[in-house]
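Sequence in, structure out.
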Amino acid sequence: MSDDERAIRKLVETWLAASAAGDTAQVMSLMADDVVFLVAGQKPFGKEQFAAQSRDMKNVRMEGRSDIREIEIAGSWAWCRADLAVTATMPDGKTVRRAGPTLSIFRKGPDGTWRLARDANLLTAVQP
């Protein structure tokens, strides 16, 4: 496994841990300023809308698991295909589970740090 692949796997791991800890600042640091998210049923959105949605969910406990299926690196660009499962526990205790495939594109900055540049997630509700 290359250093770049290890760095991307670490980014995914850090994202999930920061999300579980409610550390939005850490999550935001893992994405490029021009990041674009593609989510079913919504128009594509960027970093500002992601931050706003995160603020709206500050009392929601998030837990996630990513099973990375493949990572391909092409110079300063890389893509990662994974199966993602997320559980959100609302303040009232209600739990929402979503799971499905994701395709993420990462860009390596001039500082050598990989950041999320594009993310398409096809998560759907999981029935209990």
